[in-house]
Amino acid sequence: MSSLLDPKIMMAIKELSLSAKMTVDGMMSGINKSAVKGPGMEFSQYRSYQPGDDLRSLDWKMFARSDRYYIRESEIETNISIRMLIDASASMEHQDGEFTKIDYARYLAASLAYLGNLQGDALGLYVFEEKGIYSLAAKQDFQHLSRIFYQLEQIKPQGKFTTPVHYKELYAGSKNRELLILMTDLYQTNAEIFTLLDTLTSLGHEVLVFHLLSRNELELDYKGYSTFEDLESGKSIQIDQSKVRQEYQQQMKDYLEKTRTELLDRGIYYRLMVTDEPLDQALRDFLKQRTKLRV
Protein backbone atom coordinates (compact mmCIF):
# COMPACT_ATOMS: atom_id res chain seq x y z
CA MET A 1 0.00 0.00 0.00
CA SER A 2 2.81 2.47 0.75
CA SER A 3 3.70 3.05 -2.92
CA LEU A 4 0.04 3.55 -3.84
CA LEU A 5 -0.22 6.29 -1.24
CA ASP A 6 2.46 8.41 -2.88
CA PRO A 7 0.69 11.65 -3.94
CA LYS A 8 2.00 11.54 -7.51
CA ILE A 9 0.64 8.03 -8.01
CA MET A 10 -2.66 8.91 -6.37
CA MET A 11 -3.08 11.96 -8.58
CA ALA A 12 -2.55 9.80 -11.66
CA ILE A 13 -5.75 7.92 -10.83
CA LYS A 14 -8.49 9.95 -12.44
CA GLU A 15 -11.45 8.51 -10.54
CA LEU A 16 -11.74 9.97 -7.05
CA SER A 17 -13.77 7.00 -5.83
CA LEU A 18 -11.08 4.50 -6.85
CA SER A 19 -8.18 6.51 -5.44
CA ALA A 20 -10.07 7.11 -2.20
CA LYS A 21 -10.74 3.38 -1.81
CA MET A 22 -7.11 2.54 -2.45
CA THR A 23 -6.00 5.12 0.11
CA VAL A 24 -8.37 3.94 2.83
CA ASP A 25 -7.94 0.19 2.29
CA GLY A 26 -5.57 -1.13 4.90
CA MET A 27 -6.28 1.66 7.36
CA MET A 28 -7.58 0.75 10.78
CA SER A 29 -11.37 0.95 10.78
CA GLY A 30 -13.72 1.71 13.62
CA ILE A 31 -11.57 4.37 15.30
CA ASN A 32 -13.70 7.26 14.13
CA LYS A 33 -16.77 6.20 16.08
CA SER A 34 -17.45 7.47 19.53
CA ALA A 35 -18.01 4.77 22.12
CA VAL A 36 -20.63 5.62 24.74
CA LYS A 37 -21.29 3.32 27.65
CA GLY A 38 -24.95 2.47 28.07
CA PRO A 39 -27.61 -0.14 27.31
CA GLY A 40 -27.01 -1.76 23.96
CA MET A 41 -26.45 -4.97 22.03
CA GLU A 42 -22.69 -5.45 22.35
CA PHE A 43 -21.45 -6.30 25.86
CA SER A 44 -18.73 -4.03 27.22
CA GLN A 45 -18.29 -4.45 31.00
CA TYR A 46 -19.92 -4.74 34.42
CA ARG A 47 -20.02 -2.05 37.09
CA SER A 48 -21.50 -1.91 40.56
CA TYR A 49 -25.12 -0.86 40.92
CA GLN A 50 -25.68 2.72 42.09
CA PRO A 51 -28.95 4.24 43.36
CA GLY A 52 -30.93 5.60 40.45
CA ASP A 53 -29.69 3.04 37.90
CA ASP A 54 -32.32 1.40 35.70
CA LEU A 55 -33.22 -1.90 37.39
CA ARG A 56 -33.74 -3.44 33.97
CA SER A 57 -29.97 -3.28 33.47
CA LEU A 58 -29.24 -5.47 36.51
CA ASP A 59 -27.56 -8.75 35.69
CA TRP A 60 -29.39 -11.31 37.82
CA LYS A 61 -27.01 -14.13 36.93
CA MET A 62 -24.12 -12.12 38.37
CA PHE A 63 -26.25 -11.46 41.46
CA ALA A 64 -26.89 -15.20 41.86
CA ARG A 65 -23.16 -15.93 41.66
CA SER A 66 -21.85 -13.08 43.79
CA ASP A 67 -24.80 -11.92 45.87
CA ARG A 68 -24.01 -8.39 44.67
CA TYR A 69 -25.81 -6.12 42.23
CA TYR A 70 -24.07 -5.35 38.94
CA ILE A 71 -25.12 -3.29 35.93
CA ARG A 72 -24.35 -4.82 32.56
CA GLU A 73 -23.03 -2.11 30.23
CA SER A 74 -22.70 -2.18 26.48
CA GLU A 75 -21.23 0.12 23.88
CA ILE A 76 -23.43 2.22 21.65
CA GLU A 77 -21.80 3.56 18.50
CA THR A 78 -22.70 7.20 17.95
CA ASN A 79 -21.92 8.87 14.66
CA ILE A 80 -21.86 12.57 13.86
CA SER A 81 -22.05 14.38 10.56
CA ILE A 82 -18.77 15.14 8.81
CA ARG A 83 -18.57 18.02 6.37
CA MET A 84 -15.61 18.68 4.07
CA LEU A 85 -14.75 22.38 3.64
CA ILE A 86 -12.75 23.24 0.52
CA ASP A 87 -10.94 26.51 -0.15
CA ALA A 88 -11.68 27.29 -3.83
CA SER A 89 -9.74 30.56 -4.08
CA ALA A 90 -7.25 31.08 -6.91
CA SER A 91 -4.18 30.48 -4.73
CA MET A 92 -5.22 26.82 -4.47
CA GLU A 93 -4.24 26.50 -8.14
CA HIS A 94 -0.59 26.93 -7.17
CA GLN A 95 1.40 24.08 -8.68
CA ASP A 96 4.52 22.28 -7.56
CA GLY A 97 5.63 19.55 -9.91
CA GLU A 98 2.76 17.64 -11.47
CA PHE A 99 -0.19 18.75 -9.36
CA THR A 100 -1.77 21.69 -7.55
CA LYS A 101 -2.91 22.30 -4.00
CA ILE A 102 -6.54 21.91 -5.09
CA ASP A 103 -5.66 18.50 -6.55
CA TYR A 104 -4.28 17.45 -3.19
CA ALA A 105 -7.33 18.86 -1.40
CA ARG A 106 -9.64 16.91 -3.72
CA TYR A 107 -7.98 13.58 -3.05
CA LEU A 108 -7.61 14.25 0.66
CA ALA A 109 -11.30 15.16 0.95
CA ALA A 110 -12.35 12.16 -1.14
CA SER A 111 -10.31 9.80 1.04
CA LEU A 112 -11.72 11.26 4.26
CA ALA A 113 -15.26 11.08 2.84
CA TYR A 114 -14.78 7.48 1.79
CA LEU A 115 -13.51 6.61 5.26
CA GLY A 116 -16.41 8.42 6.91
CA ASN A 117 -18.92 6.59 4.70
CA LEU A 118 -17.25 3.28 5.55
CA GLN A 119 -17.78 4.04 9.23
CA GLY A 120 -21.42 5.01 8.76
CA ASP A 121 -21.07 8.78 9.19
CA ALA A 122 -23.26 11.31 7.37
CA LEU A 123 -21.20 13.37 4.93
CA GLY A 124 -21.58 16.86 3.51
CA LEU A 125 -19.61 19.51 1.66
CA TYR A 126 -18.95 23.26 1.72
CA VAL A 127 -17.00 24.85 -1.14
CA PHE A 128 -15.81 28.40 -0.39
CA GLU A 129 -15.85 30.41 -3.61
CA GLU A 130 -15.43 34.15 -4.12
CA LYS A 131 -19.11 34.53 -5.05
CA GLY A 132 -20.40 32.55 -2.07
CA ILE A 133 -20.59 29.13 -0.45
CA TYR A 134 -21.67 25.96 -2.25
CA SER A 135 -23.37 23.65 0.25
CA LEU A 136 -24.21 19.96 0.06
CA ALA A 137 -26.20 18.70 3.03
CA ALA A 138 -24.85 15.84 5.12
CA LYS A 139 -26.36 12.42 4.36
CA GLN A 140 -25.31 8.82 4.84
CA ASP A 141 -25.54 6.64 1.75
CA PHE A 142 -23.28 5.61 -1.10
CA GLN A 143 -25.15 7.63 -3.73
CA HIS A 144 -24.57 10.76 -1.69
CA LEU A 145 -20.87 9.89 -1.46
CA SER A 146 -20.83 9.76 -5.27
CA ARG A 147 -22.37 13.25 -5.35
CA ILE A 148 -19.57 14.52 -3.11
CA PHE A 149 -16.96 12.98 -5.43
CA TYR A 150 -18.65 14.65 -8.41
CA GLN A 151 -18.75 18.07 -6.75
CA LEU A 152 -15.11 17.79 -5.73
CA GLU A 153 -14.22 17.15 -9.36
CA GLN A 154 -16.14 20.27 -10.46
CA ILE A 155 -14.23 22.72 -8.25
CA LYS A 156 -12.45 25.39 -10.30
CA PRO A 157 -10.48 27.74 -8.02
CA GLN A 158 -10.68 31.42 -8.90
CA GLY A 159 -10.73 34.82 -7.26
CA LYS A 160 -10.34 35.38 -3.55
CA PHE A 161 -11.63 33.45 -0.53
CA THR A 162 -15.29 33.89 0.39
CA THR A 163 -15.88 37.18 2.22
CA PRO A 164 -17.52 37.14 5.69
CA VAL A 165 -20.71 38.70 4.29
CA HIS A 166 -21.55 35.22 2.94
CA TYR A 167 -20.92 33.40 6.23
CA LYS A 168 -24.51 34.02 7.31
CA GLU A 169 -25.40 31.09 5.05
CA LEU A 170 -23.66 28.82 7.56
CA TYR A 171 -26.32 29.60 10.16
CA ALA A 172 -28.96 28.17 7.84
CA GLY A 173 -27.13 24.83 7.64
CA SER A 174 -27.43 21.83 9.89
CA LYS A 175 -28.59 22.56 13.42
CA ASN A 176 -26.76 19.48 14.64
CA ARG A 177 -23.17 19.45 15.80
CA GLU A 178 -20.82 18.53 12.95
CA LEU A 179 -17.18 17.66 12.50
CA LEU A 180 -15.88 20.20 9.97
CA ILE A 181 -12.64 19.51 8.11
CA LEU A 182 -11.21 22.54 6.32
CA MET A 183 -8.63 22.07 3.55
CA THR A 184 -7.00 25.42 2.75
CA ASP A 185 -3.70 27.17 2.15
CA LEU A 186 -4.85 29.87 4.64
CA TYR A 187 -4.14 32.58 2.09
CA GLN A 188 -6.17 35.56 3.31
CA THR A 189 -6.07 39.34 3.07
CA ASN A 190 -8.29 40.51 5.94
CA ALA A 191 -8.32 37.50 8.30
CA GLU A 192 -11.47 36.25 6.54
CA ILE A 193 -10.58 32.59 7.09
CA PHE A 194 -10.05 33.16 10.82
CA THR A 195 -13.43 34.95 10.87
CA LEU A 196 -14.90 31.84 9.25
CA LEU A 197 -13.32 29.56 11.84
CA ASP A 198 -14.59 31.73 14.69
CA THR A 199 -18.08 31.53 13.18
CA LEU A 200 -17.92 27.75 12.94
CA THR A 201 -16.69 27.25 16.50
CA SER A 202 -19.37 29.66 17.78
CA LEU A 203 -21.96 27.30 16.28
CA GLY A 204 -20.58 24.51 18.46
CA HIS A 205 -18.89 22.52 15.69
CA GLU A 206 -15.67 20.54 16.04
CA VAL A 207 -13.16 21.97 13.54
CA LEU A 208 -10.03 20.50 11.97
CA VAL A 209 -7.74 22.45 9.65
CA PHE A 210 -5.41 20.81 7.16
CA HIS A 211 -3.09 23.60 6.05
CA LEU A 212 -1.93 22.79 2.51
CA LEU A 213 1.35 24.19 1.23
CA SER A 214 3.60 23.09 -1.60
CA ARG A 215 7.26 22.33 -1.04
CA ASN A 216 8.48 25.16 -3.28
CA GLU A 217 6.45 27.87 -1.50
CA LEU A 218 7.46 26.46 1.86
CA GLU A 219 11.18 26.63 1.06
CA LEU A 220 11.20 29.34 -1.67
CA ASP A 221 12.72 26.98 -4.19
CA TYR A 222 11.37 27.94 -7.64
CA LYS A 223 14.09 26.85 -10.02
CA GLY A 224 14.58 29.30 -12.89
CA TYR A 225 12.07 31.91 -11.72
CA SER A 226 12.73 35.50 -10.64
CA THR A 227 9.26 37.02 -11.15
CA PHE A 228 6.37 35.91 -8.95
CA GLU A 229 2.68 36.64 -9.41
CA ASP A 230 -0.01 36.61 -6.74
CA LEU A 231 -2.70 34.30 -8.13
CA GLU A 232 -5.47 36.18 -6.36
CA SER A 233 -4.51 39.84 -6.76
CA GLY A 234 -2.52 39.57 -9.99
CA LYS A 235 0.34 41.61 -8.53
CA SER A 236 3.88 40.56 -9.41
CA ILE A 237 7.29 41.02 -7.80
CA GLN A 238 10.86 40.29 -8.82
CA ILE A 239 13.23 38.76 -6.29
CA ASP A 240 16.59 37.02 -6.14
CA GLN A 241 15.68 33.77 -4.39
CA SER A 242 19.21 32.98 -3.26
CA LYS A 243 19.54 36.32 -1.44
CA VAL A 244 16.23 36.24 0.43
CA ARG A 245 15.71 32.48 0.90
CA GLN A 246 17.13 32.26 4.42
CA GLU A 247 15.12 35.24 5.70
CA TYR A 248 12.03 33.97 3.88
CA GLN A 249 12.29 30.53 5.46
CA GLN A 250 12.63 32.04 8.94
CA GLN A 251 9.59 34.25 8.38
CA MET A 252 7.67 31.25 7.07
CA LYS A 253 8.63 29.26 10.17
CA ASP A 254 7.47 32.11 12.42
CA TYR A 255 4.22 32.46 10.48
CA LEU A 256 3.43 28.75 10.71
CA GLU A 257 4.10 28.65 14.44
CA LYS A 258 1.91 31.71 15.00
CA THR A 259 -0.87 30.20 12.89
CA ARG A 260 -0.70 26.91 14.74
CA THR A 261 -0.83 28.67 18.12
CA GLU A 262 -3.76 30.88 17.15
CA LEU A 263 -5.80 27.91 15.96
CA LEU A 264 -4.99 25.75 18.96
CA ASP A 265 -5.98 28.66 21.22
CA ARG A 266 -9.37 28.53 19.49
CA GLY A 267 -9.67 24.81 20.22
CA ILE A 268 -9.13 23.97 16.55
CA TYR A 269 -6.99 21.01 15.48
CA TYR A 270 -4.23 22.11 13.08
CA ARG A 271 -1.91 20.16 10.84
CA LEU A 272 0.41 21.40 8.14
CA MET A 273 0.30 19.20 5.04
CA VAL A 274 2.97 19.59 2.37
CA THR A 275 1.61 18.39 -0.93
CA ASP A 276 4.37 15.87 -1.55
CA GLU A 277 3.47 13.98 1.65
CA PRO A 278 1.52 10.68 1.55
CA LEU A 279 -2.22 11.06 2.04
CA ASP A 280 -2.42 8.25 4.56
CA GLN A 281 -0.67 10.41 7.17
CA ALA A 282 -3.54 12.89 7.01
CA LEU A 283 -5.94 10.00 7.54
CA ARG A 284 -4.04 8.84 10.60
CA ASP A 285 -4.16 12.36 12.02
CA PHE A 286 -7.88 12.47 11.33
CA LEU A 287 -8.44 9.19 13.18
CA LYS A 288 -6.39 10.37 16.16
CA GLN A 289 -8.48 13.53 16.33
CA ARG A 290 -11.73 11.54 16.21
CA THR A 291 -10.65 9.53 19.24
CA LYS A 292 -10.74 12.80 21.21
CA LEU A 293 -14.51 12.87 20.62
CA ARG A 294 -14.94 9.70 22.66
CA VAL A 295 -17.15 10.23 25.67
TrEMBL record:
It holds the Pfam family DUF58. SUPFAM superfamilies: vWA-like. Residues 45-254 form the DUF58 domain. InterPro entries: DUF58 (IPR002881), vWFA_dom_sf (IPR036465). This is DUF58 domain-containing protein.
